[in-house]
Structure formats: structure tokens, C-alpha cells
Amino acid sequence: MRKLQIYQKAGVKHYWLVDPENQSFKGFVLEGSLYKLAVYGKATDRIIHPVLPGMEIDLQTLWHMD
Q1: CB-based contacts of 56, cutoff 8 Å, min separation 6
Q2: What is the pLDDT of residues 8-31, one digit of tens each?
Q3: Cβ-proximal residues to 12 (8 Å cutoff; 6+ apart), any chain
Q4: Contacts (Cβ under 8 Å, ≥6 apart) of 15
């Protein structure tokens, strides 16, 4: 079983997929018993999560952490 399905079944409310190779970020929110894409960003985007108030991530700084 994939991790997403395990988390979904367990009722984990938020699930993130961060892909440094493709410089992409996907944030999912559990609605009912299924995940729904809540936020998506690539490369130099600044994402603001619609469900987590005040959460803002500058993806460019994420990819260039030393």
C-alpha cells in the first residue's frame, strides 16, 4: 500500500509531496475519506496554504538550502 493511502486511511489531515528533483510541492487536505489537492507550486513560486492560516513557503529558498 502506498504511503498516501496509508495516511488517508489513518485520517491524517494534511499530506505533502515535496520533490526536490523536479522542484515541486503538492499539499493535500483530507476531505471526508479522500485527499484533495489544496496547493501546488514549482521552482520559484511562493505558496500560501489555504487551510493552514499563515503558512507561506518561498519554494526558491527550499530548493537552495545549504
Answers
A1: 46, 47, 48, 49
A2: 999 999 999 999 999 999 999 999
A3: 30
A4: 4, 7, 8, 27, 28, 30, 35
CA neighbor of 62 nearest in space, from 7, 16, 3: 16
pLDDT tens by residue, 24-53? 999 999 999 999 999 999 999 999 988 888
- The burial of 14, by beta-carbon neighbours within 10 Å (0-12 exposed, 13-18 middle, 19 or more buried), is given as middle
Burial class (CB within 10 angstroms; exposed 0-12, middle 13-18, buried 19+) of 23:
middle
Distance in angstroms (rounded) separating the CA atoms of residues 58 and 41: 10
The pTM of the full predicted model, rounded to 2 decimals, is: 0.84
